[in-house]
Amino acid sequence: MKSSLLGMRLGHVSGAVALAILGTAAACSSSSTPVSTGDAGMSNDAGAGGYEAGTGPVMAGTGAMCPMLTDEWVGTLFTLNVTWPATAALNGGMGPIYIWQLTHYTINGLNLTGTARTCGSQVPALVPNATGKIAEGLQNVTGPVLLLNETQTSQVFDHDTRTAMTTGVLGGWNVGSSITITPTTSLTGLSQMSQWADPTVAWPPAQTATSAIPASDITDDDNDGNPGITLYPLYDPGAGYYLPATGLGGTSPRADELYVVERTQLEAYGTSSSCTENTGTIAVPEYVDRIVGCHDQNTAGTSCTVATGCACMASEWQFIDGNATVFSGMGGPKSLITGTFDSKQMSADGSVPTCDELLALFPPPMPVPVADSGPVWGGTSVDAAQGD
Question: What's the average model confidence in pLDDT over 15-31?
Answer without folding.
Answer: 31
